[in-house]
Design goal:
Blueprint lengths: L12 E6 L6 H15 L5 E4 L14 H7 L16 H7 L7 E3 L7 H4 L6 E2 L6 E3 L4 E7 L2 E8 L13 H16 L6 H5 L10 E4 L13 H10 L3 E4 L6 E4 L6 E4 L5 E2 L2 E2 L4 E6 L4 E5 L21
Parallel strand pairs: 1-2, 2-3, 3-5, 7-8, 8-9, 9-11
Antiparallel strand pairs: 1-14, 4-5, 6-7, 10-11, 12-13, 14-15
Length: 306
């Protein structure tokens, strides 16, 4: 096992990608640092697809987060990272701590995130960056620029109007709710997509597009992705594991599970490694077969493993 990661090949960039983490920022960084130490490869960044659990004010917790935090205090982990604490200092000033880039999910403090109108770091060490909807960030890695775009939130409960008076009324109600509740996006948001999202290397959304693998996905997001044609699309929310590479466009679509413990073990396929080079794209879901230490990681011991 190498004590220090070596720089990644200048022609290949490596990102650790995480599904919904719901406050488990310390766990996310533990996994990323351990992977670098064992692989000997330096990560170029962490990509997180929403439901980071950004609740700086605990009075703003939604009911689901409040309920789950009673069983697992890590649901409130954001409290230790948006300000300077011993935990945030330990992880974010670690020599092998990559920068994180995240989008909004549907379990966040939207008033807080709404204060940011452009990609902005939310911690004292400028390591965790929030990318607002309809925004993109270009990061220089080695001799390359990588453009990462964001479109967070979830789709309205009904995206298309059906025939019949009751169906039309249901559709209008869904649209009204999506326009008033910040966890949703709307058809108007899709139609008014920014030119900043053109020519993306990576698009991160929280929800996934409708597809054969995800029939409950968003029709609006399917249209958005068809229009933007990023090289890679990453999403979570549905907690459904998806790996799909379009044979025509070569678009790589990855859906990730929720980063949490299930019967004492980390849930499989909740994170993985995305590798990008000028010639190829690849993604590997992490498992104990590829990363044996996963079998040793528990809810109570992971902070002591670095």
């Amino acid at each position: 096992m190498s004590d220090r990661a070596t720089p990644s090949n200048q022609q290949q960039l490596n990102f650790a990608v995480f599904g919904d983490i719901h406050g488990r920022i310390a766990l996310m960084y533990t996994l990323a640092i351990l992977w670098q130490q064992q692989s000997g490869i330096e990560l170029d960044g962490l990509l997180q697809v929403g439901d980071l659990g950004a609740f700086p004010d605990l009075s703003k917790l939604d009911k689901a987060t409040q309920k789950h935090s009673q069983k697992d205090s890590d649901e409130l982990g954001f409290q230790n990272f948006y300000v300077a604490t011993p935990e945030s200092q330990f992880y974010l000033q670690h020599s092998q701590a990559p920068k994180t880039y995240f989008v909004r999910g549907n379990h966040e403090d939207f008033e807080y995130l709404g204060e940011f109108t452009k990609p902005t770091p939310i911690d004292p060490w400028q390591q965790i960056w929030f990318i607002p909807d309809n925004q993109a960030i270009e990061i220089r890695l080695a001799d390359r620029l990588v453009k990462i775009g964001a479109f967070g939130g979830i789709a309205p409960r009904q995206e298309c109007a059906a025939r019949g008076k009751l169906a039309r009324e249901k559709y209008r109600k869904a649209q009204k709710i999506s326009n008033s509740e910040p966890r949703f996006f709307s058809e108007t948001d899709i139609a008014n997509i920014s030119l900043d999202l053109q020519n993306l290397d990576i698009l991160m959304t929280h929800a996934g597009p409708q597809s054969p693998e995800l029939p409950t996905g968003s029709i609006f997001l399917d249209r958005l992705i068809t229009h933007l044609q990023p090289k890679v699309h990453l999403f979570g929310h549905h907690h459904q594991v998806i790996y799909r590479q379009d044979p025509v466009s070569n678009l790589l679509s990855i859906g990730l599970a929720h980063l949490e413990f299930d019967n004492g073990k980390l849930k499989p396929s909740s994170w993985g490694i995305l590798s990008i080079s000028p010639e190829s794209l690849s993604f590997v879901f992490m498992s104990p077969d590829l990363f044996p230490i996963l079998d040793r990681i528990t809810r109570t011991n992971y902070r002591s493993l670095i």
